[in-house]
């Protein structure tokens, strides 16, 4: 009798653990970057229930401090869709880290190079030999900094780059551990609230109207649930429209998700354009950049693979 009972108990335990390990496909796991104002459409869609209006059950699967971290989570199967920089998403796709598709553009512009306000650095050329912080390699800010240096007749090797997460950058600048940094909003705007820092160059001056973050999803989800992808896109579009139509309420939501003062967020939003339309032409520039910097292998790129990054109904 004990033997039979033991067998039944063991089978029940196996069934329990198998059931617990199986993902509930009705729940979609969302990822975004910590206090990244570029991802305000995600905050709005969650806060205003736009995903739920579409009949979707969405839970936050992870909040990350840089794009490459989020792409590792996609590669590990821990996220279903998310908001992330186009550069790290592209690098992860071509390097086989994550099999994703672009669903929509999230924003244009919205980053800046920040330095101390003591007047020692007045142009990008002054960064030669200086320590400059970036959020990570193959990030949007890495891309923009390299482009700014190139536009000034300089190379990346002319500076001393260091990787820091945006929440750590301003303190490092004030303590003179670094000479400058490049980050997404609202961290440049936050710097302006102190008397110790100033914006050296806005990303709109580095590459006017440039695409920045994208809404992505696992390719497997796009294949299995194309209807859910359309609903995610619809919620995102509604969130972008809401930000434009109700800026005060959008700022209140941003305060909740970033814990930053209203004045900082008002300044930051002046430098960000929210949108939903993908830009394939400018997207190719990210691929060229990543190839030239050896962030992706040239053999990994084909025109067909490039087009496969974009979700089509």
Q: Secondary-structure element order, as H and E?
A: HEHHEHEHEEEEHEHEHEHEHHHHEHH
- The portion of residues forming beta strands comes to 15-25%
Low-confidence runs of at least 5 consecutive residues? 1-5, 7-19
Secondary-structure class: alpha/beta
Mean pLDDT: 91
Quaternary assembly: single chain
Gap from first CA to last CA? 58 Å
- The helix tally amounts to 15
Shape: globular
- Care to count the β-strands? 12
Helix residue percentage: 40-55%
Number of domains: 2
User: What CATH first level of the largest domain would be assigned?
Assistant: Alpha Beta
CATH architecture of the largest domain: 3-Layer(aba) Sandwich
Strand order, biggest sheet? 2-1-3-11-4
Radius of gyration: 21 Å
Largest sheet: 5 strands, mixed
Structure description:
The protein is an alpha/beta fold and 313 residues long. The protein folds into 2 domains: 25-109 and 210-308, Periplasmic binding protein-like II (D-Maltodextrin-Binding Protein, domain 2, 3-Layer(aba) Sandwich), CATH 3.40.190; 111-206, D-Maltodextrin-Binding Protein, domain 2, CATH 3.40.190. It has helices at 2-21, 40-47, 50-53, 67-75, 86-94, 140-151, 166-174, 187-192, 203-206, 219-224, 226-245, 247-258, 262-269, 280-292, 303-308; strands at 27-33, 57-64, 81-85, 100-105, 107-108, 111-116, 131-134, 160-163, 180-184, 197-202, 213-218, 273-274. The strands form 3 sheets. The protein has a 5-stranded mixed sheet with strand order 2-1-3-11-4. The protein has a 5-stranded mixed sheet with strand order 8-7-9-6-10, with helices on both faces. Helix 2 (40-47) packs across helix 12 (247-258) and helix 11 crosses helix 12 (247-258). The protein is globular, with a radius of gyration of 21 Å. The protein starts with a helix and ends in a 5-residue tail after the last helix. The relative contact order is 0.18. Residues 1-5 and 7-19 have low confidence and may be disordered.
